Amino acid sequence: MRRAFATILGGLTLAGGVSAPAEAGDPAAGRQVAGMCRTCHGIDGHAVVPIAPHIGGEPAEYLEAQLMAFKTGRREHEMMSVVAAGLSAQQISDVAAWYAGHSAHASLPEGVSEGDAPQACVSCHGADGISLLLDAPNLAGETNIYIDTQLKAFKRGQRTHAIMSEVAAGLSDEEIRKIADWYAAITLEIDAPAE
Ligand code: HEC
Ligand code: HEC
């Protein structure tokens, strides 16, 4: 009896351990993890290499979902797949909490107004590239190389998402370049969390 009970308990514990979501992210622990990210994304999430996106001030939900996608192979990238494979689910929650704790501010370049923004994108990504949704990223100040690469990845099916795959499928390379230039011309500032 005892033995069977223990086996059942053991089975339950294992199942729980595998499927349980990570504890809520701890930004202080995440700051330590971010030491592994800073050469590309900066410690504050303002990217320092043109092929890497700014991630400071993004919603934690979005950051966590993307890191899990790299870890499970649903999204692939030669650098990020390796980085994410080495992180536990808890480290992913922690580092997402660290970067999400920052705040992102955008300013449009001189001489343009919100009305000039790509209208097909503003309802989710904002005219100034600050996202209005928890599951969508900011585009403000991303390099045009990065935006262009992601839209083409959605278009070719190397990255998939219910909404974005459809949005990107409808864009010509020329439209992609114009939209990428709009968001790339916006100045992004990222503030560290208040101590
Ligand atoms: C060697 C450079 C490098 C390092 C180190 C690195 N990244 Fe990245 N990261 C990239 C690149 C490049 C991309 C863009 C991938 C693509 O094109 O799909 C990216 C993409 C991401 C994304 C997706 C963001 C978005 O807007 O879709 C997240 C989240 C991310 N990285 C988090 C991290 C975290 C957290 C760490 C540290 C644990 C880290 N990265 C370390 C280069 C790096
Ligand atoms: C209905 C909402 C919605 C609309 C409209 C929309 N997007 Fe998105 N976009 C999203 C979501 C959600 C994601 C996150 C996809 C994922 O999880 O992989 C995303 C991701 C992206 C990314 C990847 C950015 C990164 O950091 O990796 C780019 C680039 C992008 N969108 C550009 C656009 C452009 C350009 C338009 C207009 C032509 C547009 N989107 C319209 C919701 C939207």
TrEMBL record:
Leader peptide range in chain numbering: 1-24
Which InterPro entries does the UniProt record give? Cyt_c-like_dom, Cyt_c-like_dom_sf, Cytochrome_c_Oxidase_Subunit
Q: Which UniProt keywords apply?
A: Electron transport, Heme, Iron, Metal-binding, Signal, Transport
**What single Pfam family name could you report for this chain, choosing any that match?**
Cytochrome_CBB3
Task: Output the Gene3D superfamilies linked to this UniProt entry.
Answer: Cytochrome c-like domain
Coiled-coil stretches are none
Residues annotated as domain Cytochrome c: 25-187
Give the protein name, as stated in the record: Cytochrome C
> What organism is this sequence from?
Roseivivax halodurans JCM 10272
